[in-house]
Here is the input.
Amino acid sequence: MRTPPPSDDYARGRRDGLRLALAILAVEEAKWAALLGESPSWRTNATREVRYKTLQVAQTRVQTALNRLTPKGEAAAIDAELAAALDKLGL
Here is the structure.
């Protein structure tokens, strides 16, 4: 017995959540990019580089998950959906 596919609202909510996660990761990545190599301590600089790389990997993984959840061939609908989500967030 197969389970029914998730509703459109549920799927849209999942994609919105992933987009929000991407936005948060982008802000954090920018913060750490500005701090790279700024400390006189090599250990602090190494830690910052690891954090920066971790954020890049996380962004890639979240983007991959978002791409897998995005319906194929509906680029225009997704653009409209993204615009609506950004309006809802006030961005």
Notes: Helices lie at 8-35, 42-69, 75-89.
